Hints:
Recoverin, domain 1, 4 helices
Amino acid sequence: MVFFFRKAVQVNIKDLPVSLQADYAEIRKIFKSCDANEDGRLSWEEVKAGFRKLQSRWPAYRAQRAFKVADKNGDGYISEAELDQLVQYTLERYKGKIRN
């Protein structure tokens, strides 16, 4: 099976439409709250917990796909620098469905 992924782009929250800026901030806050051991990076389990908070039907699948998109250095963690790609991936999947 072959998977194709779009090239990640750097996201600037100011470039997003006003309607998505609140969602972006909320998703970022959700994932940061899932950093259980507070080491400043997200493990696969912590990302999966974030997708659970977003009420994903398949949080393990979403976490796996998110890591393929966001974990650029391949260390198995989403660092602060890679968090924007995780949030962007999530926004593309949950556009208009984020509730405070």
